[in-house]
Fold this sequence. Notes:
- It is elongated and about 55 Å long.
- It is mostly helical.
- It has a three-stranded antiparallel β-sheet.
- It has ten helices and three strands.
- The protein has one domain: Tetratricopeptide repeat domain (Serine Threonine Protein Phosphatase 5, Tetratricopeptide repeat, Alpha Horseshoe).
Amino acid sequence: MSKDSLVVGIAGVFFGVLVGWIIGSQQGGRPAAPVAAPAQASSASAGGDQQQAPPLDETRASALKLTAQQNPSDATPRIDLGNMYFDAGRFSEAVDWYQQALAINPKDVNASTDLGIAYYYNRDPDKALAQFDKSLAMDPSHAKTLLNVGVVRAFGKQDLKGAVDIWKKLVAVAPTSEEARLAKQAIERVGASHPELKQGS
């Protein structure tokens, strides 16, 4: 899944381009789509404006639904539909399609994390974190999941310490990844206002 950047502030710390990239980038090759953050995720956004999600391509969605109907054991069109509905800001419908994909292929860690992201954008951070736990049970070092756990802890649960702790774990398990670079950036910016979190374990 690929989501564009949002500038979101929490506890006076602005994460810049970090947040939107964290909430996504699950599948490469799809065009990024700006999606507004859920209300509980942010108390401030840069400039006070939110980007509008692009409209759903109804023709392509109909074609994918037909493909899904004709191929009941194929998770791929269902994941594609989940991605489309997410990018259109229709998160409940995205949840449904990701759930269908996982019913077919429950070991797809990317689809599992996509579902968690959709839960978060559907204003349910607890479900998001529970789904991320399932992803990490499949792959404890899955970098994008670890990055997303930190964002949901920070913005959905206002748990900056929990966010920093998981980002530090990400840096330890995947130090050369793009996700680790962004996690380091987040830790630095949180540490600017909360040095005890940056230095603490």
